Amino acid sequence: MLGCTELYAYDPVRHRLDEVISIAGATPCRSVEDGLSRNPIAVFVCTPPNSHVPLAHQSVASGAHVFVEKPLSNTLTGVNELLDAVTRAGRILFVGYNLRFQRALQWAKEQLDRGAIGRVMHVSAEYGQYLPDWRPQQDYRQAYTANALMGGGIILDASHELDYVRWLVSEVESVSCLAGKLSNLNLDVEDTADITLAMRGNVIGKVHLDCIQRGYARSCKLIGEEGTLCWDFKAGVRIYRSAGNRWDEERFEDDPNEMYMREVAHFLECVRGHAVPPVDGESGKRVLEIALAAKRSAAERRVIPV
Question: What is the largest distance, in Å, between two alpha-carbon atoms of the chain?
Fold first, then answer.
């Protein structure tokens, strides 16, 4: 389906590597270095955030284009050097903010760009799900999300919301955040955050993130001068149009896995020179700056310009 004829994989956890071999027919590698020695055209870095930059550097140095899972890193250390290396090598750095490929959110973006609700004045986004329910087959305490040193915490792990509110509306100019560990979950990072964004164009943004609520919540509401648009990951999009005094609804039947397939297909089109990344290295760095500013704001209890 994706047009790949050779696939190599490395994972230090053997049962995960065996699964990739079984499902995707990948050839196993003994190490990252072993994999890179095979001169891959493209590399997927799907590891804890604290290892993203060094692994991406290795991959670019080997001559590969690189897909890096979000966030780009858990610190800005080494990020500029990585972006410079990507530019010098003429390679692609694609940061994996997969919600850019969710059909309902794409449709919502199209409606906003067409002026469906007029000038946006306020945006509020929410993501929440109980951390042990994210990957039931894995002990959540072993996941990077629960571990500060590996780049965990809900702000970095759910930085999708910080990415897409910028995409839907405008750039962020300053950040204010309250965050902390509110639950009894066994983790050493924040599990809840409420972030206020001052955005270009006199827009206020509110982002709520947590990994403590039962059930799954992912949604966004945009208030415009001529209407209101509500996006929900599962329910689709509703638009209130003041001109007709009515709500219109657009539903999407979309397997969540298709979103990831479209994302990978787009990356491969970028590698072939037929497309550009929706979130490249510079944009991924910008989201990281905002996420780190939110963490700093929570720690220092002050507004942080970005």
Answer: 63
Query: Which 3 state secondary structure label does DSSP give 186?
Result: coil
What are the Cα distances from residue 197, in Å, to 120, 208, 237? 14, 11, 23
Q: Which two tokens stand for residue 14?
A: 């053997």
- Predicted TM-score (pTM) of the model is 0.96
Q: Pick the closest to residue 104 from 213, 246, 262 (CA basis).
A: 262
Q: Distance (Å, rounded) from C-alpha 72 to C-alpha 254?
A: 27
Query: Residue 1: is its pLDDT beyond 60?
Result: no
pLDDT of residue 5: 82
Q: Give the tokens for residue 97.
A: 């903010």
Q: Tens digits of per-residue pLDDT, 233-246?
A: 999 999 999 999 99
Q: Which fold has domain 8-98?
A: Rossmann fold (3.40.50)
Report the alpha-carbon distance of residue 227 to residue 105 in Å, rounded.
Answer: 17
CATH 3.30.360.10 residue ranges of the chain are 99-254+282-305
CA distance 106 to 101: 7
Please give the structure tokens belonging to residue 216: 């799954």
- Where are the domain boundaries for CATH 3.40.50.720 in the chain? 8-98
* Coil, strand or helix at 190: coil
What fold does the segment set 99-254+282-305 form as a domain? Dihydrodipicolinate Reductase; domain 2 (3.30.360)
With beta carbons less than 8 A apart as the criterion, state whether 125 and 207 touch: yes
Residue 254 has pLDDT above 90, yes or no: no
Give yes or no for a contact between 78 and 49, defined as CB atoms under 8 angstroms apart. no
